[in-house]
Specification:
69% of the residues lie in helices and 10% in strands. By secondary structure, the protein is α+β, with helices and mostly antiparallel strands. This is Putative membrane protein.
């Protein structure tokens, strides 16, 4: 409300000041000599009448815009809106000119001294000028209206993008949980089967296997909801996880780790390494004669690299791509560099950024 009132006052002041400024150009010098020779009361009355006149024009412009905004949209039918608005403005200004001229003459007679004389040409120029200012006021108001709409639409788009990002984050979290639920039963079944065999063959090894099995699940329970964890903690989890893999796969899978100690305090999304190793084991053979080699190392670009040799299965399992897609989504939400996937005839490599 306060902003609307201020806008009205500024438009009235602007129009009134510039009408006098253009009047100095249109009217002859003799007119202004006579004008300033009138009594002070007559000049004040002239200024007040002009102020009332331009107030009426401003209010007319605002009223026309307000009514037409409800009936003819600038966005839907811009040409029709332009023509109708211009016509209403011109007719409205003419009506105001007639009314205000009558009032002006009445007050002029009341004061007792007529206005300085202007010719027909100056009167015509004045009428054109008044119409021009009426249209200018309408244009300014329309521009303000369109700018407000643009800002409102921009805010809506920004809110939509924020909601979309939130939805993507939620979807990524749901996918991660779904992935864990898909892996867990299979993972539990395999490890319990191995554990039952180890207990019968080697109780000490069975005890160690149980402890590492518990470490893996403790890590998943504690850190599954975290966005980031230090590489040091992830590698502790990986140590326990690889213990299970080695005892399950035997010599069919070889792991080579080479992590620079300076990168151990950098951050990574939890369970990232488990997803990559499971992906390597799922789509490749693990044979003692030709073992699957998985290399995990850091590079100079602050990236963690997981690379495995390609030993394709004869019958490849169906791939949903859920694990890798989940990792990409998590990094996208973190606003970091994207993971890079490289594949040639011999190796499949994934590089994920380490976050400082």
């Amino acid at each position: 409300m306060k902003r609307s009132r201020m806008k009205r006052l500024l438009m009235i002041a602007f129009t009134c000041i510039f009408s006098y400024a253009t009047g100095f150009v249109i009217f002859p010098y003799s007119y202004w000599i006579d004008y300033f020779g009138m009594p002070a009361s007559r000049i004040i009355m002239d200024i007040l009448v002009n102020l009332l006149f331009y107030t009426a024009i401003v209010e007319l412009s605002l009223l026309v815009d307000k009514r037409l905004n409800k009936r003819i949209s600038w966005m839907v039918r811009p040409l029709k809106r332009l023509l109708v608005q211009a016509l209403y403005q011109i007719l409205g200004v003419l009506l105001i000119v007639i009314c205000m001229a009558s009032i002006y003459l009445i007050f002029a007679d009341f004061v007792g001294k007529p206005s300085p004389y202007i010719g027909l040409r100056e009167a015509f120029y004045t009428l054109i000028l008044v119409m021009f200012w009426g249209l200018m006021i309408s244009a300014v108001n329309t521009g303000d209206f369109l700018l407000k709409n643009w800002k409102a639409e921009a805010l809506k788009v920004a809110e939509f993008e924020i909601k979309e990002a939130q939805n993507k984050q939620l979807a990524a979290e749901i996918e991660l949980q779904a992935l864990k639920l898909q892996l867990d039963p299979h993972f539990v079944f395999n490890n319990l089967s191995v554990l039952s065999e180890l207990i019968l063959k080697d109780q000490q090894l069975g005890h160690e296997y149980t402890e590492n099995f518990a470490k893996v699940y403790r890590y998943l329970l504690i850190n599954s909801k975290k966005k980031l964890i230090t590489l040091r903690e992830e590698l502790k989890f990986l140590d326990a996880y690889l213990f299970l893999i080695r005892n399950r796969m035997g010599e069919g899978c070889v792991f080579q780790l080479n992590i620079d100690e300076s990168r151990l305090n950098m951050l990574i999304p939890p369970v990232t390494l488990q997803l990559f190793i499971e992906n390597a084991i799922k789509y490749n053979r693990t044979e003692e004669e030709d073992p699957l080699v998985v290399r995990i190392y850091s590079n100079d670009n602050d990236e963690l690299v997981v690379s495995n040799t390609l030993l394709p299965l004869i019958k490849m399992p169906d791939s949903t791509g859920l694990g890798l897609k989940n990792i990409r989504s998590r990094y996208a939400l973190l606003g970091e560099r994207k993971p890079v996937i490289e594949k040639d005839t011999q190796n499949f490599t994934i590089k994920v950024p380490l976050i400082k």
